[in-house]
């Protein structure tokens, strides 16, 4: 199998010749102002790491550019949020840049693009404390704002898949920590806009992955995402479900993970021999059907790419 065949088979839950490997890093800020260099950085990462597919970075485009969110103080102001529209630079910029990244990859492997849930786009602009204040002060106002953002995100998803040439999206689902919302709050306040985008993405591609993010290092209330479906789930092995087979049974699809992504942990400190041994162990646990080897979340740039290459090379020998 080549990379494309291997990854497509894994996304379909079919047996692969080798377990696919994919880890990802953020693009350093010094490249954000030049789309060509931004694309070259991601193409170089593919060449250096030899991963089987890429999660394309959304760096530079994390916060939501609504003027309403600037210095917002009261929840009722959220009712004033207006759609950006398909031609807004925030949307067009991502589509055009991703087209360049995909072109730079030259068809060497599949690629999926990072998309956040609507509430996270808002949170990335105003911060968690203000997000929680506003949503608790007036849940209806935040739901309204999330719905507006969701309609724009659907335009972004459409452009990323149909214009840029990405194979699908990497849907980063956040805000589900056990200490943030109750089950009922999440399902009422957050879930509708999450699912609006996810269901639309699934109508456009069968190469989407959901990332159940645990970046705050607090376990997620996984039950709030019980009906979030995609061909692949990227989960937090070190905060939610340690056992790979249990994770596959829980999510009912191919699962993607294995290594702790945090600086100072095994992938950053272990010897090559130890990393090769752990890679073999994870593959033995996950098998060659319904498993993709990766990490809980983004690999920090301080990690030498050669360490990812050790994982890839080992996987190709098993």
Provide structural commentary:
- It is built from 11 helices and 7 strands.
- Helices cover 45% and strands 10% of the residues.
- It has helices spanning 3-11, 35-49, 89-105, 118-126, 128-137, 139-162, 183-204, 244-251, 266-269, 272-286, 305-315, and strands at 54-56, 111-116, 168-173, 209-212, 232-234, 254-259, 291-295.
- With 318 residues, it is an alpha/beta fold.
- Strands 1-2-3-4-5-6-7 form a 7-stranded parallel sheet.
- Helix 8 links the parallel strand 5 and strand 6 (254-259).
Largest sheet: 7 strands, parallel
Radius of gyration: 19 Å
Task: Indicate the structural class.
Answer: alpha/beta
Overall pLDDT? 97
- Adjacency order of strands in the biggest sheet: 1-2-3-4-5-6-7
Secondary structure: number of strands? 7
Number of helices: 11
Give start-end ranges of low-pLDDT stretches.
Answer: none
How much of the sequence lies in strands comes to 5-15%
> What pattern of helices and strands is seen along the backbone?
HHEHEHHHEHEEHEHHEH
Percentage of residues in helical conformation: 40-55%
Shape field: globular
N-to-C span? 14 Å
Set out the fold topology.
Layout: H1 3-11, H2 35-49, E1 54-56, H3 89-105, E2 111-116, H4 118-126, H5 128-137, H6 139-162, E3 168-173, H7 183-204, E4 209-212, E5 232-234, H8 244-251, E6 254-259, H9 266-269, H10 272-286, E7 291-295, H11 305-315
Parallel strand pairs: 1-2, 2-3, 3-4, 4-5, 5-6, 6-7
Helix pairs in contact: 2-3, 3-6, 4-5, 4-6, 5-6, 6-7, 10-11
Keywords:
single chain; 318 residues; alpha/beta; seven-stranded parallel beta sheet; 11 helices; 7 strands; 45% helix; 10% strand; globular
